[in-house]
Amino acid sequence: MWTEQVRSMIGTGILETLYMTVVSTVFGYLFGLPMGILLCITDKEGLKPNKVVYKILDVIANIVRSIPFLILLILLIPFTRLLLGKSYGSTATIVPLTAAAIPFIARMVESSLRKSITELSKQQRQWALSNSRIIFRVLLVEARTSLITGATIAIGTILGYSAMAGAVGGGGLGDIAIRYGYYRYQTDIMIITIVILVVLVQILQGLGMMLSRKLDKRKA
Fold first, then answer.
1. How far apart are CA 27 and CA 35, in angstroms?
2. pLDDT for the residue 34
3. pTM for the whole thing?
4. What is the structure's pLDDT at 180?
5. Can you tell me the distance from the alpha carbon of 27 to that of 95, in angstroms, rounded to the nearest whole number?
6. Cβ contacts of residue 72 below 8 Å, gap of 6+?
7. For residue 121, which of 131, 109, 108 has the smallest C-alpha distance?
8. With contact defined as beta carbons under 8 Å apart, do 66 and 60 qualify?
9. Out of 1, 79, 93, 190, which could bridge 165 as a Cys pair, Cβ 3.0 to 4.6 Å?
10. What parts of the chain have a pLDDT lower than 70?
């Protein structure tokens, strides 16, 4: 089984999986972090309640999160093809991965910030700080441990989604597992890809939790 071709294929699959996961997570936070902040501050108990804005963002997040990833991937094929010129491969898979990650990340950010916003809102009157300073200098700093824990969960979830994308030619380890393990009945290759995926998730989550614990000690 361990021919040069197989080793090269699995090595490429690992790199493609990490590439999709990391880039999708970055783009997910680029849009999901502001969305989560807006959800938190425009809530009825937020720094600047706005029922209309909160409702719009809340509905968008709920709708996208309720769509199974494989269906979302298929729904976004025309948009992905329009954006990148193709709808298959690791780069194309980043588009639906990002779309799935944004509301997921936004909800985790909202949850992390909500834990301390009530107390900080009372302190805001005493400090006479603007909302922007409260958000960037207080809320995000206070919630950093929770935010990193959430990022760790997000990375694991996105990596799992990237594996599912292999069912429609998404590239990476999931694509290898489908092509060789399912269509060609090479169970050994499928088992290896599954083991590698599990190890990758454990490594990424272990690093994230270690960083979270270190920041929590500094905060204390």
1. 12
2. 93
3. 0.86
4. 81
5. 9
6. 64, 96, 99, 100
7. 131
8. no
9. 93
10. 1-2, 118-130, 216-220
Residue 53 structure tokens: 């804005």
CA distance 146 to 215: 10
b/e sequence 80-95, b meaning 16+ C-beta within 10 Å: beeeeeebbbbebbbb
Question: Would you state the pLDDT for residue 169?
Answer: 72
Which pair of tokens denotes residue 76? Answer: 């976004």
pLDDT at position 127 is 58
In this prediction, residue 38 carries a pLDDT of 92
- The pair phi, psi for residue 98, each rounded to 5°, is -65, -45
SS (H, E, C) the chain: CCCHHHHHHHHHHHHHHHHHHHHHHHHHHHHHHHHHHHHHHCCCCCCCCCHHHHHHHHHHHHHHHHCCHHHHHHHCHHHHHHHHCCCCCHHHHHHHHHHHHHHHHHHHHHHHHHHHHHHHHHHHHHHCCCHHHHHHHHHHHHCHHHHHHHHHHHHHHHHHHHHHHHHHCCCHHHHHHHHHHHHCCCHHHHHHHHHHHHHHHHHHHHHHHHHHHHHHHHHC
Q: How far apart are CA 170 and CA 28, in angstroms?
A: 18
According to the model, what pLDDT value does residue 188 have?
A: 84
Structure tokens at 213: 């614990």
pLDDT on residue 101: 94
Whether 113 contacts 75, CB under 8 Å: no
